[in-house]
Amino acid sequence: MALREVLLVALATLLLRHARSQTSNGEQVVSRDGEDCLSQYAAPATVLAVPEEVVLVLGNSGSGKSALAKHLSRHDGDMKAVRENGEFFIEGDGIGGSIASVTSVPELFHDNETATNYFDCPGFEDTRGPCSEVTTTYYMKDIARHARRVKVLLLAPHFAVRKGQDRSDFLTMLRHAARVLKDPAKLQQSLALVVTKVEAPVVKRNNYDGYGRVSSDLVKAPDSDVRSGVEAFLSREVRPFLAAMAEDSSVQQEERTELRNAVKIVDILLLGGVETRRHGRVSRIGLFHAPDEVGALGDIEIMRNGRAELLELVQGLGYADVQQGDFGFSVSARTKVFALRRVQQLNEDVVAALGVLGQAAKNQSASAYDPSDIRASQERYAELEKKAADVARHLKNSTDVKEFCLRVAVPEDSSVQLADKCAILDVLQVVSEQPVVDHAVLATTWAAPMDSVTEYLKEKKEWHSFLLSLYQRFNSYPVQLQRRSSSTPFPSSSFVELPEFAAEAEALAAFAATGQNLSDVAAVVSTASRGPKTRCVGDLPSGGHAVVEGETVLLSEAVAAARNSCAGPLQLLEVYALNTVFVDDTVRLPSVPLVVAAPRWETLGSPTINLDGEDGEPLGSAPAANCSGERGHDGRPGNPGGPGGVLLAVGMDFAGNKVRVSAKGGAGGVGEEGGAGSGGGGDGGAGGL
Ligand SMILES: *[C@@H]1O[C@H](CO)[C@@H](O)[C@H](O)[C@H]1NC(C)=O
Ligand SMILES: *[C@@H]1O[C@H](CO)[C@@H](O)[C@H](O)[C@H]1NC(C)=O
Ligand SMILES: *[C@@H]1O[C@H](CO)[C@@H](O)[C@H](O)[C@H]1NC(C)=O
Ligand SMILES: *[C@@H]1O[C@H](CO)[C@@H](O)[C@H](O)[C@H]1NC(C)=O
Ligand SMILES: *[C@@H]1O[C@H](CO)[C@@H](O)[C@H](O)[C@H]1NC(C)=O
């Protein structure tokens, strides 16, 4: 572990202990829960689609955000009013009766009619521990990153904004809002307060009939009364309290900034109405009534009318142009500490997973190896090494964890779970607003397994290059000559003891240390030092057909071997070398068709391949005359010379001098001498070709 990491862990432990000792015994359980939760934390699976234009519905948990967002966007088909213990409630999917039942994922509701996107944001209050805090913050940052024009609805239940009530619920909401909305001035035309669960107070109304009699009934106070009550609460209770605290020098600077922001928000809410097209100015304080009868929400008059008014308000607001930096979504210091610990653990997991992938890549590369084809193996390893080096370079060039992970190809059949871990790291990175694994660690520790794969393939490539050079050395003329002339078995693995192989022996020792397969050497050497095999196919008294095959063939050796293998005279000789044929001496094969095929030809000195036909056999003398004066017998014509041979040569590389090839027909034999006449001589015959 690097010193820096050690320090980080020490710091985290210290902070954690501090966080624990600070809390009272009841809270300590929460801390431990938090740790457990982050150790099993799974990255949020939902991917938010954030439109550029959104209405953010913000407020404490349980303030009715979901109900409002669904109701305004006409997604309230499932919502109905029920009555319990004399009170009316709204029920519906995702609308929690209890505070903790709400999701951490912001939910988007699109209203077709007004083309408005409502984001039902998770509640401000952090009652659900670090994990939901992390997820919530991650999503809200996502919204902040993508939304470009926003309106903001702050929600507060009616009971929390009434004179004489406990102010803490509303103040909590305001202070969260002040932290999140870093620049309230931008929201001057875009911010409204929606008071939810409004149960208008019932007032007694006296009716006077024309005869001076008075009757009375109970009626709901008008909405304007509710609004003025809220305005009074804001201006007379909330604002002075916040303003005083913002000036209190015993309050920390950061908190005072936040308090001043809260005051600005209150000021905007108190600005008065917003201009609307149809209804002129409407109040910035919207009312979301509690139902006053049971049934589907759409059937309840007070809800229908209320919605129309709220929609007017939302339409009346203008969208504010915002940037990511206008929002301050962040996790608490305590959650940051948990996150840091989780990062350490994930970092180790990811490094281990990358190691397994590296090993798998090495295993996979074994398919490049073919002991029977060293050259092809060498080429494949060279190609793989190049690819691995490219991948390693690409990985090291990643700017962050997410990019790095996206660049790692995990084979489908692999059990390695990198994506999940990377996703969590990315979430923790986003919420902690700093790189969780710094670039140097990515380029070293994280990229190390890939570097190791590259190094491994490079060794394999070099080993095969060495085997190839060893093979070539054993196929060279001096070694082949030595093989041919050696009476003792040619040295195979024991060659390392020969002084002329000192360099090879040294290289071999170095390779052995890297765990290369030394059996390859024996295989290569025995292949290259195996002399050619000669067969006589079709051996007839009239002549034989010989085939010589080997890695490397000395032509003089092949001719001698062929002659030995066939009993009759050679009619045809085929020589095949997989590596080289050395034309090492002049060979004479009168009239024999010769086939030589080898990828490489090398000539030593200036040899000739002589396939000339033999000359015709000379004849004796014709019988002499019996008696004087008679003619002796005529001499017979000379014998024909042998036909010239044919050479079929196949090769690609040719080294050394040009080979001289001669394939003339043999000269005709000399004609028979005429018999001695007792007067005249006989004529000689003509020689054949
Ligand atoms: C909104 O409009 C689209 C297409 O115009 C339609 O498919 C969708 O069902 C509508 N949604 C609602 C909730 O009315
Ligand atoms: C690689 O091969 C070794 C030896 O055959 C094996 O033990 C190991 O599990 C393999 N690793 C992977 C990741 O495939
Ligand atoms: C590294 O990344 C930068 C920016 O993404 C790119 O311009 C550069 O070509 C990359 N280098 C390599 C070696 O991939
Ligand atoms: C080692 O080399 C020999 C000869 O080339 C080969 O037959 C064998 O399969 C190799 N062993 C391994 C483990 O690759
Ligand atoms: C000489 O006599 C022998 C035997 O009688 C005979 O075969 C031969 O042809 C004769 N030679 C000549 C030139 O007549």
UniProtKB/TrEMBL annotation:
Keywords: Signal. InterPro entries: P-loop_NTPase (IPR027417). Residues 1-21 form the signal peptide. Residues 607-645, 665-689 are annotated as: Disordered. This is Uncharacterized protein LOC117644992. The gene is LOC117644992.
